[in-house]
Amino acid sequence: MFNFLPHSVLQMGTIFLSIVIEAIPFVLLGCIISGALQVFLTPERVQKILPKNKFLAILVGSFLGFFFPSCECGIVPIVTQFMRKGVPEHTAFAFMVTAPIINPIVLFATYIAFGNSFKFAFLRALGSLIVALIIGSWIAYFNRSPILKAELHEHDEHHHGEQEKKSFKSNVWSVLVHGIDEFFDTGRYLIIGALIASGMQVFLPTQFMLQLTSSKLIGILVMLVLAFTMSLCSEADAFVGSSLLSLFGTNAIVAFLVFGPMVDIKNLMMMKHSFHGKFIVQLIALISVIVTVYALVI
To answer: What does the record list as coiled-coil region(s) (predicted)?
Structure first.
């Protein structure tokens, strides 16, 4: 039916559909969780749960993903809702960078992908925790630029108190309504991100990049670019990483496994919807430096 189209366009379409089909269930789950947070999580409850000490709050956020797992495809709506409900920004972003990695499903998939070896699962989890602690500390003690876009605050203020004194059935309906709204709002950015990612996978000169593996540092940087452009879900990326291990070596593959769930094209597009551009640039630059240094010294 589409035989008249160039092979590269057909390949791009196939990759695009695979990214979207793989990501949509996790985006939907993230949006439903976001809806539940919108309805049931109050600022008062947040203040009771989280420790007052900033560093302890960062630690709580870093390990929360183990008990509250989420794929990076749906993490942005959850983090956005956390902040709108009074969760400190340093806690929310510590959760954002670790949740797609330290959750049991991803760690088990990593263990299986590398031949039932704990090495890469451990290095991956350790790297994510180091990034979370540094990013959380930067936000808590040094960052002064706004993070969440003003219109999201205004939207939250407009709906504040609407869920008060409702029955449980009404609250469940509110969760679904909010989740669906969030899904269609966030989903368009997923589509744009998947389209860009699929185009880069087809038209980016990968063979040229693979020739740059003679240097450990360059190999790491190449794998950061591949992680960003391939935009794989964290449940699946370990199998791709294991297939590239003999070519790139341990350092570069660990960088790939740590960086990919934190920053990729589809995730970037969803962040752009919720967060200020200046903050996003600073966040990605800092994550890139931390992951590169970590991969070099392990």
So the answer is: none
